[in-house]
Amino acid sequence: MFAEFGYGILVVSFIVAFYSLIAAVYGALRKSAAMVESSRRGMFLVFPLLSLSAAALVYLLITNHFEVAFVYEVTSRSMPTYLKVTAWWGGQAGSLLFWAWLLAAFTSAVTLRKWERDIEFLPWVIVVNAVTIIFFLGMVVFYENPFTRFWLVAGNVEPHMFAPLAATLFTPQDGNGLNPLLRHPGMVIHPPMLYLGFVSYVIPYAFAMAALITGRTDDRWIRLTRRWSLWAWLFLSFGLVLGGRWAYDVLGWGGYWGWDPVEIAAFMPWLTGTAFLHSVMIQEKRGLFKHWNMILVILTYALVVFGTFLTRSGVLSSVHAFANSPIGPFFMGYTALTLFVSIALLIWRWPLLHGETEMKSMLSREALFLLNNLLFMSVLIVSFWGVIFPLVSELFTGQKVTVGPPFYERATAPLFAGLMLLMGIAPLSAWGHSTIKTLGRAMWKSALAAAILTVVLFFTYTQNYIALIGFFLIALVLFVTFQEFGRAARARQRAQGENFFTALARLMGRNRRRYGGYIIHISMMLMAIGILGIEIFQKETQGSLAQGEQMELAGYTIEYRELASWPDEGKGVNFTRAVVDVYEDGIYLGELTPRIDYYFDSQQNMTIPGNRSTLKDDLYVLLVDWQPVSSMGATFKVFVNPLVNWLWIGSLLFLAGIIFTAWPDHDPAEEPLRAPQSTNQPSAAD
Amino acid sequence: MKKFLYVIAFLFLAGSVFITSPAFAQGGTPPTDDEVNAIARKLYCPVCESTPLDVCPTEACYEWRELIRTMLAEGNTEDQITQYFVDQYGARVLSEPPKEGFFWLIYALPPAVILMGAVILFRSLKEWTKPKAAALVIGSEPAAASPKTDDYLSRFEEELKKQK
């Protein structure tokens, strides 16, 4: 009954969303406030409706209704309740519903805002949101229905929504269970975070399209959606970081990022989103690059849809998988159609989007921001081409190829280095005008300090020139950023007579975006230390040890002590856990317990590392294999990952930085309009 | 089923190499796990998407690693072993496409597009920053940049509306 109820409500939501779309278009074209209001209410209703449908699905998940195909695929009796709930987004059909549900929540929130000053945007914002919801709900209602049930038809089990003729309901004894890799706390939060990020980007896009359609092409849409973009960026970034940590903890390959198509799918909208965050500032401060901001927000939306499709469907693995996937062509068709319509709108309104001022200098902050955008776009081009090339190759040559990390690392490393260099220069350049002389005067001290530090590192830590370039750039950005904090705080200290820390705190509080941005830059550099450490200095070895035997790596010694294997029927897992003693330069540090968990229901292994983590490095031990009699020996793979903890510390600071920047204090829409005097922001170069 | 067939094929292949391997039969020093992994790291099996062979937990990949071990024991070089896998399973076992023929596209296209973007950007920047006879003062009325007076009017009205 719950399945029929859930599906019925889905269909009703689909119809209501469709009605809202029609009413919004009609209301906007006929200037009928009543119709627009009706569409607003309709849109508002979609969220509670979808919540009911989602509740029905969650109920089916937690009560072991294995006659529902989706429940059978993603849960099993042995799974704890909280995992059964999160299994909602553990499979394709459920995650599409989850996507639509989140978007409905955001759309409801948007429809509730005060619209007086922007009423002309309202119907078109509803249209864009409604079209997106209809597309996702359409997928769920017609192709990937999570409420489909198993029916016994003439001896065969078939999945159908409604009972075929002379069929009886078929209920399997137990379900397949969620992929054990997904039963990790990181993985429980990771997909919702990514999806929240994806879905939040629909809102800035909707406002951008509304601005194009209504011809109100000033920066109002950007001001209205500034915080949406920041929160979207926060969620997406958090999702990416959690995904990295999950990979490090669970995938058992000693790494955090493998340039897998699924990872890149989430990374691509992040790239355009990050470029957008920077480039909207130019429009706000200087009234420039309105076309480009439109292009960025359109691209981000397209990549969000493309990313959702890539993450869940796995259709990029081959041309055949793509062609056979029921939703593949629809997703591609939808992405292509929205891109086409958005770009057509942009071309139509192109003349209205001219810059309000002129660029004055190739070294001004807006010029450097443009360069930053070029670099982000370059990383995007590399990533996109790398992801789709296997398909292109198969299509044209019939040969499948793999595009793995070496390709991406080689192509993106110089681009990331360029971005770091810009992070070191741009904060010192002024809006409007900068010269080499003013920039040089502002940054020579930081550059010199970074150079000295690099020389010290050359003699004490590494002679690897890539690492040295990386460390120089990291030091440059850190010194420049700290210099900026110090300079501004001292200026305020002098002017207001406050002590340094009060001045710093108040300064940051007053200009959250600028100083939040700097915190994010610092955090990025901490992350870069970790990335350089693991990418360049990672060491690994593998070997089989008998009990009491030792192996060494980078100053660490591990000694195999014992191994035990036992089933836990309640959890449906067989645990195999080894204990190794760890020494560094002969000093006993403690024990590590790498293990392998075997999940009975899905017949899959999960490799959990034993990890000893310090700021200097991680000793990361994996149990690879073992002999039936534990005393005979076990095989271990050992990694030493230098500096990797800085990646996680940086990630935490990064999140704190975004929250600091995005935390609501007052309505940004109420800020005064751009005034001539604000075009020249004070900066060290002034 | 397909996976199972692969496993059988690998088992068979590994077994046949093992049996016919004179070096192994003679009891030479077996290659270390690190030597095997150094090669396995650069290879991908056709079954497990996006997972390099050295960390792939599947049975099929285990068999491939054992095959590498056997081939190393036979005295094959890394290039020979890699070539053997390419011959058997196609270019997809490599971590990136070989630099030949159609595959050049993957290496050539991004730099070409990026270069094009850079050229366009720098040309536009140069164009924008060129001093103009009737250069505008920053923050002056936007109408001069707009071709139609109507646009200016509508924008002016908008600004007024917002000021309310």
Can you offer a commentary on this structure?
The complex is a heterodimer of chains A (686) and B (164). The N and C termini of chain A lie far apart (70 Å). The longest helix of chain A has 33 residues, at 365-397. In chain A, 61% of the residues lie in helices and 13% in strands. The model of chain A is unreliable at 668-686 (pLDDT under 50). Chain A is flat and about 85 Å long. Chain A has 686 residues and is an alpha+beta fold. In chain A, the strands form 3 sheets. In chain A, strands 5, 6, 7, 8, 9 and 10 form a 6-stranded antiparallel β-sheet that branches. By secondary structure, chain B is mainly alpha-helical. Chain B is 60% helix and 0% strand. Chain B has 2 domains: 2-93, Helicase, Ruva Protein, domain 3 (Orthogonal Bundle); 101-163, no CATH class. Chain B starts with a helix and ends with a helix. Chain B is built from 7 helices and no strands. At the A-B interface, helix 10, helix 14, helix 15 and strand 4 of A face helix 3, helix 6 and helix 7 of B.
Summarize this structure as a short list of keywords or feature phrases.
heterodimer; A: 686 residues; alpha+beta; 4 domains; six-stranded antiparallel sheet; four-stranded antiparallel sheet; 13% strand; flat; disordered C terminus; B: 164 residues; mainly alpha; Helicase, Ruva Protein, domain 3; 2 domains; 60% helix
